[in-house]
Amino acid sequence: MELLPRSPAEFGSARYWDRFFRQRGQRPFEWYGAFPELCPVLHKYVRPRDKVLVVGCGNSELSEQLYDLGVCEDIVNIDISDAVIRQMRERSAGTRPRMSYLLMDMLHMDFPDAHFQVVLDKGTLDALLTDEEEATLAKVDQMFAEISRVLQVGGRYLCVSLAQAHVLKKAVEYFSQESWVVRVHQVASSGDEQQFVLPVFVYVMTKFRKIPGSAARILEICHEEQDKPMRVQSAEQLVAAVKNRQHYALLCSQISKTPCREQVSLDLCDKESGKPRYTLHLVDSPSVKPSRDNHFAIFIIPQGRETEWLFGTEEGRRQLAASAGFGRLLTVSLHREQHYQGMAGIQAELSGKVMELAPPGLPARQQVPFLSVGGDIGVRAVRHCASSPLSGDFVVEDVKGDGTCYFRRLIFLQNRNVVQSEARLLAPTPLPGQKKRRKDKKKASPTEPSGAIDKSYLCCEHHKAMVAGLCLLGGPDALPGELTVLVVGLGGGSLPLFVHDYFLQARVAVVEIDPSMLEVATRWFGFSQGDRMQVHVCDGLDYVAKLAAEGTPHRAFQGLHQAQVVPHWYDAVMFDVDSKDLTVGMSCPPPAFVEKPFLQKVKNILKPEGVFVLNLVCRDARLKESVLGTLRAVFPLLYSRHIQGEVNEILFCQLGPTGRREPSELGARARALEGALRQPGRPWDSSYVLADMLQAVHII
């Protein structure tokens, strides 16, 4: 039996609806939104004494249920189908004396002005606004004008809808321009598997007198029935908020039926501020043999550890899920701008929401475990927040790592999942949220630094590899004598600091384009300048170009005496500079730094036996191959060292192929260099083995 229209235009045809209801018979037809789901919203906006008009009533039970449950009795129902009006009159005859059914077109109603307090529409607008053709939009305008005419000031137009973008936008723009207050409610789902996948919404348009010259619009969204309305600034924002809820509903429907082949990620936002509060990653492990107790688990990532490989990469999370032994693992990252009430508070907050992401086959009333590392949510203390015209918003924060170590990090918030710079702290004082084992005799000042910087420790693996590459420098001695090094990109300063402190005759010039970074490195990361360390605040492109153009000795260190002139070429040039353009598939360095004309200038400031060290972070395979080709065209000898578990690849570039060294020789030189650097009385990180950093080096 065919009940659906041949074309959307038939939704506005009385003939179609007569045929539809004759074929369907007495069975009620509910497009969507059963009464138990709609009731909480309707109770807020329909009062017992209200006079209610239901437009396009069909044979829905909604009016009958409103009447029978005492929500409201003075209800007038209209429809263009004579068949359904006769059917509904028969159904209510003798049982609902105050409710009436009239054959009437809602585009041309016979009621006087301001006759109703409520107009109720369940799916009628959706049925009418099937496209955005001029004729259709004209009908919708007429519908809205008639609803506005018959409603009293202070009256409410309640529209139950699936909220397609063009339908919602049309309603919001029309009524907000008339100075009506517009609020959109999401209807709570009943959990019925037979219902629509898309969530149901109720638009609540409240009529106010139009004030000439007033441009103020009140637009609100209420995600769940107990929520406070959230104000938005435009119709576009309201449509976007609804679209996010629809996408989430589709996602929940999809992952509740079938396992996910790819990892799924989403943000759960704070209701007040709209900012992300939790970031969820859903990982399914098909290889895990299912049992009653291993279907689903939640893993809370301790604060500050979300950037670690195990938690911050797809492969890491895949290994975490497999080792945890659950068919579906949901990892939860906590955001630095948010405050959390411990593990118990997080569990209480997330319990209802995460069950919407449960896997298929989860037994009823199954307890879902919350897992973590060490049983707590970690420690994060934001030490400094600022903004720079060049780097954007950034923070300096102290976090607790694995075990008892604490680390200080620089994070650029435009790429908040990447640690820009990191340093280990020595003997930190207790951070907020950390339990004290004993009473301190003296309270620490809240502004007191949490510990000195451990300058012997290189946190970043790519920095370790870059330093190890200095063993490529020629000469019989393991430790070069006088060494001139140019570092482009300061960050927290750990790389130039290490070279300065362990190569005691090295003179280091650092180029940093952002003066804010020099301030951050000095105040928060223990960086300082001196006779052998000088920072130049300028563009690295300009600085290198200037040196290459001079071709004569220059004074690289302003603090040196007149006679101490540094040559314009360097033993080592190191590029560790990030790109601010996130649209390019290469986040380090900016593309201009690896163009052939500029690389020729780098070559011109490098000593013949020197080494150019480049930190390359490129996810675009074609772009990466192009960069490598350009480097090979300028530097005949090219070594590569991929950083395991990261995108970083360290490239060591030299001018002469005659200086090529085999892996065994590199290992020997690295061991000799480490022996020279590790001197009695000077701290050394025992986990840092230079030879290990060069084991995976290969020549391109």
Automatic annotation (TrEMBL):
Region entry Disordered, spans: 429-450
InterPro entries according to UniProt: Lys/N-term_MeTrsfase_sf, Methyltransf_11, SAM-dependent_MTases_sf
GO MF annotations in UniProt: methyltransferase activity
Boundaries of every Methyltransferase type domain copy: 53-158
GO CC terms of this entry: cytoplasm
UniProt cross-references to CDD domains, sorted A to Z: AdoMet_MTases
Listed Basic residues bias regions: 434-444
One Pfam family it belongs to: Methyltransf_11
Keywords of the record: Methyltransferase, Multifunctional enzyme, Transferase
UniProt GO BP: methylation
Family: Belongs to the methyltransferase superfamily.
Designated name of the protein: eEF1A lysine and N-terminal methyltransferase
